[in-house]
Design a protein that fits this description.
By secondary structure, the protein is of the alpha/beta class. It has 5 helices and 9 strands; from the N terminus they run αβαβββαβββββαα. The chain has a single domain (5-202), classed as Collagenase (Catalytic Domain) (3-Layer(aba) Sandwich).
Length: 220
């Protein structure tokens, strides 16, 4: 589903009242980007920041890089447990931050019945402070580094959307649709659908109206 982003935003402006700062307040909600580990390229960090600002009316601050927490490491699979990374991020989130997004290049996983340890691209709990994403699986079958980076940006928009209260979306090709374990679904995605945009506004969040930093997929 394609959306005329600027036209839609103009039409929706009348309902942007009250709610969180940035949707009628003086200050924008602050999102802290926390880079975990030393192997994530700066270009990936920049893509995530650009992607978030293209969709959400927020302030994005980049925190100094931090070591991955040893308590989150899962030696059996040689990767990091995403839920433990969320705990780590929540405990260390700056007091000034409305949300904190952890970004890393290492493989991450969580439990997903019937799987005890299931590899994921990102994890967030609905409405909670922290979310975390990994570029590790964004590289699968990617055409090049920029393609993988664009996928990473889409995942960032998706997981931060969960912390803003957006559930998985049934609308085909919406950035909030369920990936069902595959990063390949992101290649069909371009934007948030009208339903998700309306839901964000009802929850008091502003939309920036920027241009997504990835090409619009060609219709099939």
């Amino acid at each position: 589903m394609r959306v005329d982003r600027r036209g839609w935003l103009i039409g929706a402006a009348a309902v942007l009242v009250g709610g969180h700062a940035g949707a009628g307040g003086d200050e924008l909600p602050r999102v802290a980007l926390a880079t975990l580990g030393g192997t994530l390229p700066e270009a990936d960090v920049a893509m995530v920041k650009t992607a978030l600002l293209a969709f959400y009316e927020v302030e994005v601050v980049v925190l100094p890089r931090a070591d991955l927490p040893k308590q989150a490491y899962y030696p059996k699979r040689k990767r990091y447990r995403a839920e433990k990374l969320l705990d780590f991020l929540t405990e260390r989130a700056p007091k000034s931050a409305h949300r904190v997004l952890g970004i890393t290049a290492v493989d991450i996983s969580t439990s997903k019945p019937p799987h005890e340890d299931w590899g994921v691209i990102g994890l967030a709990n609905m409405g909670n402070t922290a979310c975390v994403i990994s570029s590790f699986r964004c590289k699968r079958l990617a055409r090049n580094a920029e393609h993988a980076r664009q996928r990473f940006g889409k995942v960032a928009v998706h997981e931060l959307g969960h912390t803003f209260g957006l559930p998985h979306c049934p609308t085909k090709d919406c950035l909030m649709q369920d990936a069902k374990g595959s990063v390949l679904t992101s290649d069909r995605e371009y934007d948030l659908c009208t339903r998700c945009r309306q839901m964000l506004i009802r929850r008091g969040y502003g939309l920036s109206g920027g241009t997504p930093p990835w090409p619009e997929p060609k219709p099939k």
